[in-house]
């Protein structure tokens, strides 16, 4: 019967099979780690999204992460985020947030303005301070692109305004509305940055009312109710844009060479009565003075989140022209008004 020969372990074999005996022991050259991601994915640009924990911020991050490395910053959590989205639950004004941004040095920054945040405490000086901090960081890290999500509501509904307002129209929505005044202040601050830092391509998007199945903003909640108060004797024209079209516009705004202010609409408009009819919502006509008082009372009792200052939108229209976005950005909404309303 043949016997198996025993081969003594050599020094090389012992080094390979057993761990080093000391911390200072010399180790051979490490083999390169095999990267699971493709070269195209490794070369993806990095985009920072502020307000990533909001409803709209979550929708936006889920779209952007397909083509970008996404970093989110918000005081709210983002528990159901995609696995490759990096989220930091911190205030943008804090040093910790500033350290993160300086370390990550994002190529692009998307800032969700005050009109897309339903938190009552996110108002006034805090908003301006956060925006000013972000603008200084964008300049410090040399970001290529800054996209700020403003709102077409800043123009303000008025009985004397033109049928379709362009981006050059004055922002008059803050005359009797504190939240609109905050939004206008942020919008104007970013416009100043546009001229101060020409090396960063700055884009301001002013969308009309945004609706969608993932949003819990004021207009989306109103269109899910069985009944809705309207102002007696008035039926204003309304423009809406679907959340998917809004995120598609943000992606277009991140392309090189795009800069400036752009209105965004869903492509068409309809009377408020027609929109309620499509959604099978019963209209409850109320005289104007009573409607404003009722809205204020319900808000004070925390029975409704409807801002009394928004009653004017039930009286007058605020229609905008989006031809500049179509020509310069190639933006074309994919959802018709009917499709957007049915997707609620």
Task: Describe the protein's architecture and organization.
The chain is of the alpha/beta class and 344 residues long. The protein has a single domain, classed as Rossmann fold, CATH 3.40.50. Helices cover 33% and strands 17% of the residues. The chain has helices at 11-17, 39-42, 55-64, 95-104, 125-141, 178-196, 218-222, 243-253, 272-278, 288-300, 323-328, 337-342, and strands spanning 46-50, 69-74, 86-89, 108-112, 145-149, 201-207, 209-211, 227-231, 237-242, 260-264, 269-271, 282-286. It is globular. It starts with 10 loop residues before the first helix and ends with a helix.
What is the CATH architecture descriptor?
Answer: 3-Layer(aba) Sandwich
Shape: globular
Q: What is the name of the CATH topology?
A: Rossmann fold
Helix content: 25-40%
Major β-sheet profile: 7 strands, parallel
Low-pLDDT regions:
1-38
Task: Describe the structure concisely for a colleague.
This protein is 33% helix and 17% strand.
List its traits.
344 residues, Rossmann fold, seven-stranded parallel beta sheet, three-stranded mixed beta sheet, 33% helix, disordered N terminus
Topology:
Elements (H helix, E strand, L loop, with lengths): L10 H7 L21 H4 L3 E5 L4 H10 L4 E6 L11 E4 L5 H10 L3 E5 L12 H17 L3 E5 L28 H19 L4 E7 L1 E3 L6 H5 L4 E5 L5 E6 H11 L6 E5 L4 E3 H7 L3 E5 L1 H13 L22 H6 L8 H6 L2
Parallel strand pairs: 1-2, 1-4, 2-3, 4-5, 5-6, 6-10, 7-9, 8-12
Antiparallel strand pairs: 9-11
Helix pairs in contact: 3-8, 5-6
């Amino acid at each position: 019967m043949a016997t198996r020969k025993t081969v003594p372990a050599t020094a090389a074999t012992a080094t390979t099979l057993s761990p080093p005996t000391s911390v200072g022991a010399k180790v051979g050259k490490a083999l390169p780690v095999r990267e699971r991601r493709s070269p195209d994915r490794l070369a993806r640009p990095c985009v920072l999204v502020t307000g990533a924990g909001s409803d709209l911020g979550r929708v936006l991050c889920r779209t952007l992460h397909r083509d970008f490395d996404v970093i989110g910053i918000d005081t709210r959590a983002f528990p159901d985020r995609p696995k490759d989205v990096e989220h930091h639950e911190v205030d943008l004004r804090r040093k910790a947030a500033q350290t993160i941004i300086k370390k990550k040095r994002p190529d692009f920054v998307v800032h969700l303005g005050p009109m897309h945040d339903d938190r009552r405490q996110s108002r006034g000086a805090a908003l301006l301070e956060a925006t000013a901090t972000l603008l200084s960081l964008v300049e410090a890290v040399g970001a290529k692109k800054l996209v700020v999500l403003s709102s077409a509501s800043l123009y303000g509904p008025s009985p004397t305004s033109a049928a379709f307002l362009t981006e050059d129209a004055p922002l008059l929505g803050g005359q009797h509305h504190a939240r609109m005044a905050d939004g206008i202040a942020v919008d104007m601050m970013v416009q100043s940055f546009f001229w101060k830092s020409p090396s960063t391509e700055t884009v301001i998007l002013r969308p009309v009312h945004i609706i969608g199945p993932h949003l819990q903003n004021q207009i989306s909640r109103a269109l899910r109710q069985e009944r809705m108060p309207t102002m007696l004797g008035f039926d204003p024209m309304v423009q809406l844009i679907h959340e998917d079209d809004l995120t598609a516009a943000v992606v277009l705004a991140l392309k090189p060479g795009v800069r400036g202010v752009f209105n965004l609409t869903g492509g068409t408009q309809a009377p408020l009565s027609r929109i309620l009819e499509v959604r099978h919502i019963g209209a409850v006509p109320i005289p104007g003075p009573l409607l404003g008082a009722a809205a204020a009372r319900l808000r004070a009792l925390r029975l409704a989140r409807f801002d009394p200052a928004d009653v004017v939108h039930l009286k007058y229209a605020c229609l905008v022209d989006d031809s500049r976005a179509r020509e310069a950005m190639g933006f074309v909404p994919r959802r018709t008004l009917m499709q957007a309303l049915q997707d609620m």
